[in-house]
């Protein structure tokens, strides 16, 4: 995996931002509500063919760019800024890393890199129907259900964690073998669903994946933190632009000290969230022993602070921010959802305390 410099990551950020702004519709309720219900084939084809985002973390030998979590976090920020409703986080980052690091997923990596295969992770058991795996001849069958599955309606395959004989296994299941039950959530731009398995045939990926599944949980927290940072950054940008142009009492509202303070608070949120997320992403790439701690720090912070930035945007916008037509509510909805995805702030503070106490 090549090591990129800060200058190269800035170039990556700029290139992805420019590309997404050129191929994705302008941010509005009209263009984003319901956009995550199905795959936008034209946009996904361009994202795959022109800039190669689905292959970002895929090895070069399989047609990918062979980059790491650090670079993926940069791209996740940018996809969040435009409320990208396609499966980059779920498939191109988390599911791809799961398949790549399982040790037996090489046959799927080239399809993931090209964007022709979309996969998603299923980690959280339905407490009333935990998933079980049964060996049938040379195959496996899954029964049970998983909760809180991202982009389930877009996926062609599901990477499923299962407790098996004192170990944790990862198994791959085709989408036509499962039942998908979407939730009615507050995020109107991304589908989250319950996925049920009824004697679903599956392929096992490697042996005991207990450590990998734990790592995937941490990586999910890092990825969610990166998206939260991108949302806060977009909220800040929109707030500053509005404060510079909205005139009240004969002067731009950005000249009033109270509004200046709110914008400054948003900048503090963005920069601190970006720093915490970058540290966690760097741990994932270079210091895996530190990942549990740095991921908990990043997610505990971003889960509380980044939704606040989207709320401050609505406050600065005033009555405009409360309208359906303005996209501010979509930023808030995505931020509130991500704040509890892969653990909320309280979960991660508790985890951090346990990790530090055990040292």
Explain what this protein looks like in three dimensions:
- By secondary structure, this protein is α+β, with helices and mostly antiparallel strands.
- The protein folds into 3 domains: 114 residues, Butyryl-Coa Dehydrogenase, subunit A, domain 1, CATH 1.10.540; 90 residues, Butyryl-CoA Dehydrogenase, subunit A, domain 2, CATH 2.40.110.10; 147 residues, Butyryl-CoA Dehydrogenase, subunit A, domain 3.
- The protein contains 11 helices and 10 strands.
- A hairpin with a 2-residue loop joins strand 3 and strand 4.
- Helix 1 packs parallel to helix 4.
- The radius of gyration is 20 Å and the shape is globular.
| General form | globular
Q: Which class best fits the helix and strand makeup?
A: alpha+beta
Helix content: 40-55%
Mean pLDDT figure: 96
Order of helices and strands: HHHHHHEEEEEEEEHEEHHHH
CATH architecture heading of the largest domain:
Up-down Bundle
CATH class of the largest domain: Mainly Alpha
- Low-confidence stretches at least 5 residues in length (pLDDT < 50)? none
The biggest beta sheet reads: 8 strands, mixed
Write the layout of secondary structure elements.
Blueprint: H1 6-23, H2 29-32, H3 41-50, H4 69-81, H5 88-101, H6 106-114, E1 119-122, E2 124-125, E3 132-136, E4 139-150, E5 157-164, E6 167-174, E7 178-182, E8 192-204, H7 210-245, E9 247-248, E10 251-252, H8 257-286, H9 291-317, H10 328-339, H11 345-357
Parallel strand pairs: 1-5
Antiparallel strand pairs: 2-4, 3-4, 4-8, 5-6, 6-8, 7-8, 9-10
């Amino acid at each position: 995996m090549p090591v990129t410099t800060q200058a190269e990551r800035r170039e990556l950020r700029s290139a992805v931002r420019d590309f997404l702004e050129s191929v994705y519709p302008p941010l509005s309720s009209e263009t984003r509500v319901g956009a995550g219900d199905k795959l936008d084939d034209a946009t996904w084809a361009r994202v795959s063919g022109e800039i190669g985002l689905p292959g970002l973390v895929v090895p070069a030998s399989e047609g990918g760019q062979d980059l790491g979590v650090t670079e993926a976090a940069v791209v996740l920020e940018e996809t969040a800024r435009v409320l990208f409703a396609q499966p980059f986080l779920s498939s191109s980052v988390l599911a791809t890393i799961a398949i790549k690091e399982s040790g037996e997923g090489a046959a799927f990596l080239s399809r993931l890199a090209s964007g022709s295969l979309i996969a998603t992770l299923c980690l959280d058991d339905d407490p009333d129907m935990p998933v079980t795996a049964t060996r049938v001849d040379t195959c496996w069958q899954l029964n049970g259900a998983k909760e809180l599955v991202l982009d389930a309606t877009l996926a062609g395959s599901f990477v499923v964690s299962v407790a098996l004989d004192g170990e944790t296994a990862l198994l791959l299941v085709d989408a036509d073998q499962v039942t998908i039950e979407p939730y009615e959530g507050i995020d109107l731009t991304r589908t989250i669903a319950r996925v049920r398995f009824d004697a679903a045939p599956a392929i096992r990926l490697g042996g005991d994946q207990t450590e990998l599944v734990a790592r995937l949980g941490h990586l999910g927290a890092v990825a969610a933190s990166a998206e939260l940072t991108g949302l806060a950054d977009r909220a800040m940008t929109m707030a500053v632009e509005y404060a510079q142009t909205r005139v009240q009492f004969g002067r731009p509202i950005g000249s009033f000290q109270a509004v200046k303070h709110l914008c400054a608070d948003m900048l503090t949120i963005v920069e601190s969230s970006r720093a915490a997320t970058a540290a966690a992403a760097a741990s994932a790439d270079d210091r895996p022993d530190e990942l549990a701690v740095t991921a908990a720090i990043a997610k505990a912070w971003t889960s509380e602070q980044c939704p606040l930035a989207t709320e401050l945007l609505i406050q600065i916008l005033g009555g405009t921010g409360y309208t359906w037509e303005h996209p501010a509510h979509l930023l808030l909805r995505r931020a509130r959802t991500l704040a509890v995805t892969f653990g909320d702030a309280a979960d991660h503070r508790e985890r951090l305390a346990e990790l530090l106490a055990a040292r």
